[in-house]
From TrEMBL:
InterPro entries: ArgJ-like_dom_sf, Peptidase_S58_DmpA
Keywords: Aminopeptidase, Hydrolase, Protease
Protein name: L-aminopeptidase/D-esterase-like protein
Record bears the keyword Transcription regulation: no
SUPFAM superfamilies noted in UniProt: DmpA/ArgJ-like
PANTHER family named in the record: BLR5678 PROTEIN, D-AMINOPEPTIDASE
UniProt xrefs under CDD domains: nylC_like (cd02252)
Gene3D superfamilies xrefs: L-amino peptidase D-ALA esterase/amidase
Family named by the database record: Belongs to the peptidase S58 family.
GO molecular function: aminopeptidase activity
Length: 319
């Protein structure tokens, strides 16, 4: 059985997508709440409720994280997640009811499928409802349904990507998992071999050099904000909000080991970190392991993808 983020006790995942419009959302639920942090490295992010994760702010736990396509329009999916959790009685107690805390981040997938169809509240409700009821599917699912990579030379040379997940468990019981929707302007390489798995196609079975291509083409070929890789790393470690934010920061190394270039002006790369608080663990161990499993999840996202929207996948395009 493949490893996934739901190997972390207290983490559930639900996904919903429109395979024709090529968009979708992924909900990571934390029944009972989890400490959370976030780190945004890309320069074109679309996020919701991330300020709450600053250690100086009031709320200590989140109840779900929503990763979604649809660019800024897709933030509506998080409203649906909130509605579902409210019906379940799960949220921050405000005396007259509960307010579910659902940080969210979006990626731009409007270039594939239909630009007029985006994740909405109904899709968010459906993804939240499915959480905990099925294994985590990979590839063209959830927030990775319309994901693509290798766009530094334009969409005509890009390749299909998707969603991936991975986990690792240490002998002391510490379990760390990652889930990622890979939608980068850059190419994806296997960190173990250096092999390019998906990138800008050269039309001859190989790949264009991204430095040369970016140097030759002006920024107009890549409209600002039309990319973004979104990830969640989770562990059963006992962390403070400050340390959860540190883990999110360290986890970005997993993106840097696999995506070239990453954190560009055209990406809104965002990593959330969740901690369910069951095992004592050093923050450096959790952060280092989070980067490792996130790098593995990125590779799996590309390898699991199927061609769609006129773009070939890794399995369909051999160098």
């Amino acid at each position: 059985m493949k490893s996934s983020i739901i190997d972390v006790p207290g983490i559930e995942v639900g996904q919903a997508e429109d395979p024709e419009a090529l968009t979708g959302c992924t909900v990571i639920r934390t029944p009972g709440g989890a400490v959370a942090g976030a780190d945004v490295r890309g320069s074109a992010p679309g996020t919701r409720e991330t300020d709450l994760l600053n250690p100086i702010n009031l709320v200590e736990q989140v109840h779900a994280v929503c990763l979604t396509g649809g660019s800024a329009y897709g933030l509506e999916a998080a409203t649906g997640v909130m509605r579902f959790l409210e019906e379940e009685g799960e949220g921050f107690d405000v005396g007259v009811g509960v307010v579910p805390i659902v940080p969210a981040a979006v990626l731009f997938d409007l270039s594939l499928g239909s630009a007029r169809v985006r994740p909405d509240a109904a899709m968010g409700i459906e993804a939240a409802r499915r959480a905990g009821k099925e294994p985590v599917a990979e590839g063209n699912v959830g927030a990775g349904c319309g994901a693509s990579v290798g766009k530094f030379c334009g969409m005509e040379a890009a390749m299909k990507s998707g969603l991936g997940t991975a986990s690792r468990r240490l002998a002391n019981g510490l379990t760390v998992g990652a889930l990622v929707a890979v939608n980068a302007v850059g190419e994806v390489r296997d960190p173990r071999t250096g092999e390019t798995l998906a990138g800008a196609r050269d039309g001859q079975g190989g790949f264009m050099d991204f430095i040369d291509c970016m140097a030759r083409n002006d920024a107009g070929k890549n409209l600002p904000g039309t990319n973004t890789t979104l990830a969640v790393v989770a562990s059963n470690a006992r962390l403070t909000k400050a340390r959860a934010n540190k883990v999110a920061q360290m986890a970005h190394d997993g993106l840097a080991r696999t995506i070239y270039p990453v954190h560009t002006m055209n990406d809104g790369d965002t990593v959330f970190a969740l901690a369910t608080g069951k095992v004592e663990a050093a923050v450096d161990v959790v952060g280092a392991l989070s980067a490792e499993v996130l790098a593995e999840a990125v590779v799996r996202a590309v390898k699991a993808a199927a061609g769609a929207g006129g773009l070939p996948s890794h399995s369909e395009y051999k160098e």
